[in-house]
Amino acid sequence: MSESQNIKSVLTEDRVFPQSAAFVSQARLDADRLAALHAAAARDHVGFWGDLAKKELGWQTPFTRVLDDSQAPNYRWFTDGKLNASANCLDRHLGARGDKLAIRFEGEKGDTRNYTYRQLHAEVCRVANALKALGIGKGDRVVIYMPMVPEAVMAMQACARIGAIHSIVFGGFSSTALKDRIEDAGARLLITADGGHRGGQIVELKRAADDALAQGCKTLDKVLVLKRTGHDVAFDARRDVWWHEIVPKQSERCDPQWVESEHPLFLLYTSGSTGKPKGIQHSTGGYLLGAMTTCQWVFDLRDDDVFWCTADVGWITGHSYVCYGPLACGATILMYEGAPTVPDAGRFWKIAQDHGVTIFYTAPTAIRALMRLGDDWPKRYDLSKLRLLGSVGEPINPEAWMWYHKVIGKEQLPIVDTWWQTETGSIMISPIPGAVPTKPGSCTKPLPGIAVEVVDEAGDVLTGKDAGGYLVITKPWPSMLRTIWNDNERYLKTYWGQFSNRYYVAGDSTHRDEDGYYWIMGRIDDVLNVSGHRLGTMEIESALVSHPAVAEAAVVGRPHEIKGESVFAFVICRGERPRGAEAEQLAKTLRDHVGREIGALAKPDEIRFADNLPKTRSGKIMRRLLRSIAKGEEITQDVSTLENPAIVKQLAGQD
Ligand code: WTA
């Protein structure tokens, strides 16, 4: 959803959906209990989180200090406590839930595998022992570049078990993107697979990994390779180790390595408005607490749930709501490896039916795509086990919300539209399904213990009933990022610098209505949200100018019906501006080049060649103008301050 489209639909949206009586009667949190939580957090913010951390997490050494703000805004939580994330996700369920399913898995070709908590625990211990045998220990970085198979979760849990820091790179990223992340993290081990299945094709993970290693990655000693597809891949016996040769022979016992609460659990690279992707660093104790409490509050998660979060583990949503949160709660998760439309448009609904999915959590882009395929597909399947629907990653337009509500939710199921970020670690603003009425397109209200405000340009908090401005978080929370790996300066500047360290600045603009409901308007920085994936315009521009034919490039987002936003690039060539067939050919070459530099998800949908970019006399590119041009809007802005006003016509494709 583009900002202006969204504002338009938001301004005309006044429908309110009360929570369903059937849901309320059995909900973990009803309005009274929610009010009590909010009151407790308002009374004593730090104590509120301290009490929850004691109650929800298993500590090997209990903490005595809840919040250390002596180095603010580098906050530290539960500092003198020790715990292990994998012990919290697995070991503590072995007594009561040992024979309960932890993972139900289905591959694109229909292959299925199930793991009970006891089996998953044993597998994770084996993988952890294999990592140790490969020389990995506490604090070492391990990059994971895998398909969406149970072994990806095992690899994450195994790292956590021995105190190694994992950093997952989404399988859709290119070898260059993989190399950059391996190098920035200084990883010693890469865990990958021969390939994955997606859309009837093989995703060539091992080949990309080999390319990445050929380009650099000097810190890397070994590559652990899972055989998933079984197709032929290159294998360097000095460096590569097959998973099936090292893992099965390990012991199924591996005592967890107890780590300090602040010990980094993982790094996850995400795009910002400047420079290279940044390694968001998350802690062990605080992160896990956020993932767990939000599973309980927002998803009302309980023992008999089958929780399907469709996100890949390469994104933060897959970390918090596939791997850590639901397992820490002892739930059953569903993992599906492939595309939603293979072999046909009913696949998601068939999976939901066959596995008895009770909670379904996906992104608006998927909802819009499924909506387009028609109501007949979901109607063919028995979705009666579903009891809660969720949305994440981008603003959901009211039309898609209504379809989700009517066709999938049969007008009965609560929808939780959850706002959060890689940096926040867990959900920040969302309806509580048994307590908060919903409005299509609004993520409603902040969760207990999360202090959200709207501020203006000057950083003044807007208290009015109808406020629009920057979304900020005014108090630290346990699952917040701790820093940017290797770059604390950038952490301070990016998230805290704008208003002199007073607030965490999320980078989103928002509107809060008269009922205190939040409506997220989109990014205020140069970050695009394409199909719920964050992409920095700068990253794509650097990828484009790294091609020898390109002198300069400017990238903006354009509203797109399914993807939310699509990538639109204005390109200035080194020689003559190409035209006709030559332009088409170069556009294709550049698209493929971006695919190789970053990944297919960053390929521009449209490339327009021009002789110059619209620049002010001080040399600044007028991005606002480019955004209007990309949308095909009539140019009403004042272009007289441009150094080269005549260029506008050409950029608009009229010359
Ligand atoms: C956007 C994904 C509106 C927002 C968990 C944020 C949303 C960015 C929502 C973070 C939502 C996420 N409504 N916008 N419910 N959820 N966003 O780091 O712009 O991949 O800043 O984390 O996605 O994207 P990220």
TrEMBL record:
Record has Translocase as a keyword: no
Binding, CoA: R198, G199, G200, Q201, T317, S531
Annotated GO MF terms: acetate-CoA ligase activity; AMP binding; ATP binding; metal ion binding
Needed co-factor(s): Mg(2+)
Binding sites annotated in the UniProt record for Mg(2+): V545, H547, V550
GO cellular component: cytosol
PTM characteristics: Acetylated. Deacetylation by the SIR2-homolog deacetylase activates the enzyme.
Species whose genome carries this gene: Solimonas terrae
Family note: Belongs to the ATP-dependent AMP-binding enzyme family.
Binding residues annotated for ATP, in chain numbering: G393, E394, P395, D417, T418, W419, W420, Q421, T422, D508, R523, R534
EC number: 6.2.1.1
Segments forming domain AMP-dependent synthetase/ligase: 92-477
Residues where N6-acetyllysine is found: K620
Name this polypeptide is given: Acetyl-coenzyme A synthetase
HAMAP family, A to Z: Ac_CoA_synth (MF_01123)
Residue span(s) of domain AMP-binding enzyme C-terminal: 539-620
Pfam families from the UniProt entry: ACAS_N, AMP-binding, AMP-binding_C
UniProt catalytic activity: acetate + ATP + CoA = acetyl-CoA + AMP + diphosphate
Superkingdom, taxonomy of origin: Bacteria
Disulfide bond in keyword set: no
Keyword list, A-Z: Acetylation, ATP-binding, Ligase, Magnesium, Metal-binding, Nucleotide-binding
Known role: Catalyzes the conversion of acetate into acetyl-CoA (AcCoA), an essential intermediate at the junction of anabolic and catabolic pathways. AcsA undergoes a two-step reaction. In the first half reaction, AcsA combines acetate with ATP to form acetyl-adenylate (AcAMP) intermediate. In the second half reaction, it can then transfer the acetyl group from AcAMP to the sulfhydryl group of CoA, forming the product AcCoA.
Acetyl-coenzyme A synthetase N-terminal domain span: 35-89
One GO biological process term: acetyl-CoA biosynthetic process from acetate
